[in-house]
Amino acid sequence: MKNQLRVVGVIALVLSVILVVGFLPISSYSFSPGNAIAVANQIHIAAEPDLNKQGKVLMTDVILTQLTPITWLFDHFDSTISIYPAADIFGASNPSNLATQQLGQMIDSKTAAVVAALSFAHIKYSTIPGASVVATTPKTTPSILPGDLIVGVNGQKETTLSGVVSAIVASGKKVKLTMVRASTQVGNPNTLTVVGVKYKASGRQILGISLQAGEAVKLQRPVTISTGQIGGPSAGLAFTLGVLQAMGVLHIKAGGVIAATGTIDPTGAVGDVGGVRQKTIAVARAGAKVFLVPPQEVAAAKSDHIAGLKIVPVATLTQALHYLSVASLATVAR
User: Fold this and answer.
1) Cα-Cα-Cα-Cα dihedral of 324, 49, 120, 55, to 10°?
2) DSSP letters along 296-310, please?
3) CB-based contacts of 107, cutoff 8 Å, min separation 6
4) For residues 156 and 24, what is the distance between their CA atoms, to the nearest angstrom?
5) pLDDT, position 73
6) Which of 38-52, 246-260, 281-295 has the least mean pLDDT?
7) Exposed e or buried b for every residue in 58-89, given b needs 16+ CB within 10 A?
8) Burial level of 159, CB count in 10 A (0-12/13-18/19+)?
């Protein structure tokens, strides 16, 4: 009897260990299909046309999940999910900074989308150049946020990334930053002053921010793109099409459902993005008939051979609009 109890105890212990270990995070992540939503619901512009009478443009995302041994096992049997080691997704970056970085990328993407749309439509605008905050650390002064645009340091105007960086490095422990908040960077930019406090890391004093060149845009007709906590730059092309539709430049024929993915820069160039296989599944589920993708992503988009969904490679905004016009899916006025 005692031996039987010992065996039962050992089995229970082993099962407990398996259960505990089975739910511990591992260094693998999964991409699964996310949502596909109409960008018209997120874009607001004064005197926009009645978009309920038109077709729609969809943006899409993927769901990124850190796996455990148990979820890894289940996800391997789901054909819609792709699994990657953490290094393939984050490189040398800290995964804990991903959400912050992606929110900053989204802000830059929305600004670039508006500029690309305005440039195509030959609508005048002016810019305020500076350095955009891409990411922060837990020790960064809380009032400095991802997406902030730094346009001055210690009372001096700075219009370039190198100028902002040099001025911050040359400053003492406290740095007075003149910034434009993300929420006002497109339309009527307003500046405010924030005092950042440096802290010691790796033997030097730093603010704990990552920067890249950026700009705010002054408009006579403000454009608002509301994205909440959605991050990343991959909706740039979809936003640009949506802004053109809201301005009355692009008219999508009623009943048309066009999806798009790809980064956009102010010149209208479309860049590659990740998770295109899962995004293709998401837009197909949402009823899209056409999916505009960067040329580099065509193979990934076609990998599941989804019937009824046409994959169209586009390297520029002009190419995207030309295809929609030639395919009789939309009309374009300039």
Assistant:
1) -20
2) GGHHHHHTT--TT-E
3) 132, 146, 147, 182, 185
4) 50
5) 87
6) 38-52
7) bbbbbebeebbeebeeebeeeeebbbbebeeb
8) middle
Distance between CA atoms of 161 and 234, rounded to whole angstroms? 23
Q: Is the pLDDT of residue 78 over 70?
A: yes
Q: Which two tokens stand for residue 304?
A: 């599941």
How far lies 109's CA from each of 23, 185, 239, 271, 276, in Å? Answer: 36, 12, 8, 11, 18
Instruction: Measure the CA–CA gap between 243 and 44, rounded to whole angstroms.
Output: 8
Q: How far apart are CA 49 and CA 121, in angstroms?
A: 16
pLDDT tier for residue 312 given thresholds of 50, 70 and 90: very high
Buried b (16+ CB within 10 A) or exposed e, 224-263: ebebeebbbbbbbbbbbbbbbbbbebbbbeeebbbbbbbb
The CATH number corresponding to 126-218 among 3.30.450.20, 3.30.565.10, 2.30.42.10, 3.30.420.270 equals 2.30.42.10
CA dist list (Å): 251 to 53, 73, 241, 287: 10, 46, 10, 19
Q: What is the CATH number of domain 28-121+222-332?
A: 3.30.230
Look up tokens 């993300």; give the residue. 182
Q: Which of residues 269 and 1 earns the better pLDDT score? A: 269
> What is the structure's pLDDT at 333?
86
As a whole number, mean pLDDT of residues 187-198 equals 89
Proportion of the chain above pLDDT 70, given as a percent: 92
Opening angle at CA 224, ends 223 and 226, nearest 5: 155
* Position 69 pLDDT exceeds 70: yes
Strand partners, 291: 259, 311
Range with the largest mean pLDDT of 48-62, 69-83, 87-101, 283-297 = 283-297
The token pair at 171 is: 């400053």
Span 191-201, mean pLDDT? 92
Indicate the domain borders of the chain: 28-121+222-332, 126-218
